[in-house]
Design goal:
Layout lengths: L1 E2 L7 H13 L4 H20 L4 E5 L3 H15 L4 E5 L6 H9 L4 E3 L8 E5 L38 H10 L6 H11 L2 E5 L21 E5 L17 E5 L9 E3 L19 E5 L4 H13 L4 E5 L10 E3 L3 H4 L6 E4 L7 H11 L5 E3 L2 H4 L4 H6 L6 E3 L3 H8 L6 H12 L2 E4 L5 E3 L5 E3 L12 H14 L4 H19 L5 H12 L3
Parallel strand pairs: 2-3, 2-5, 3-4, 5-6, 6-7, 7-8, 9-18, 10-11, 10-13, 11-12, 13-14, 14-15, 15-16
Antiparallel strand pairs: 1-8, 16-17, 17-18
Length: about 500
Amino acid sequence: MSPLAGPILTAAEIRGAEASAMAAGATVDSLMERAGQQIAVAVRRLAGANAILVVCGPGNNGGDGYVAARLLREAGLKVRVAALAEPKTDAAKAARAAWPGGVEPVADAQPASILVDALFGTGLARPLDAPDVPLPSSQRKLGSQAASAEQPPQETPASAGVMARNGAAATPITAKLRALAQAATLTIAIDLPSGVTTDDGRVLSDIPVFDITLALAAAKPSHLLQPAARHCGTIRILDIGVATTSAAQVLTRPNLPPPGPDAHKYTRGMVAIVAGSMPGAARLAGIAAMRAGAGYVLLLADDHSGPDALVHKPFAPQAIADPRIGALLIGPGLGRDADAVAKLDATLVTDHPLVIDGDALHLLKGNRLTTLATRDTPLILTPHAGEFDALFGASDASKIKRARAAAVQANAVIVFKGADTVIAGPDGAVRVAPGASPWLSTAGTGDVLAGAIAAMLASGLAPLEAASAGVWLHGEAAHRAGAAFIADDLAQALSAARATE
């Protein structure tokens, strides 16, 4: 059981990884046995001596649940199994046959201290309580439903007639799952909480928030993308013997060594920040850049407020032409008037690595974005959702797909900000940040992030790595700042975040 890290695989990618494992000699049954073993080990550690209820669906996720339940019982734990329907895959049928205990209908299941959700895992595409998806009652045979591997069982006309004759009313699956979860002291989801998609973070049903999710083989996009991620609780990766690779990775702590004995302010990186109508935002970015490790920060503004270490000069073409500038940041507090447009146009014709944020993103529409995409120097764009939609258009596609497409269009690294920040490069590489502090939802924190990213870019990191390091430092600083912090506190906390060993 490992912390959330490593590759992020879509449903199609995990199926491909399993297919490769089987081509190398594994079988569906052996993979299911391995998954069940790892689940049982994890649940045993978490459950202690408490009673366990494993709720199984008709597909291979349910099969994993049967295997885990069998092994937990063999280890001496008190385990019950409830099923939504009879297994529909050969491997799940074999796992069910090997379970030595009884199987009760989910509708009639009584709660237990530990709830293990093995109803539906990777590949779910519709709500649990669609009109044609009743929960089997105790008055119906469990095998009366037909279902695909990871879809809710559909009611057949025959089973509908049985229900009508006996007066049985279907209990919604989500209502039962919520009731069982509410009565439990610990809730554990296998691979993904039942009721969420795999690839785009959507929540299809009104499901509970689980304490722990045991991800099989690798993280999936919905372990990190909202709103699904908030239903996963703490995520742990289980090794089930499947090799996993992906261009998408969970964002982890960067390697940021301290300055060497021969370092000086320019080798650590010079950041220049173009201020505008709201100079406080640019000043916040400047403080953040210094706290993140930049050796020299130049604020191009008429306003001279801020710490003494922040160098001030009026904006002028010759000021932004300084060859010592390692990264040029424009956007925080820039405004959208004629003066802002003129500053942006002057900035775009330089050959410095650029970080473009805030108001400057709104001014990039049309020819500016097209022209920007032809630049050969490093470029990072840092939009939040509203800025992203304004620049690249709205879409229902997953945040990862949208960020990747925008990175190709702009020929830039995109930092698609939010509670589930996605960083994408034009080569398809992606980093997704886990669990941001909700206290980041306050004015100025985006300016702090832009400054931290600019400092990383000025230090010489490649654009994707600079953006990733800045996002990680920003998140770490937020956790260190605690509750109800303001952007000024966040910028100050970057020093401690940078010093993290």
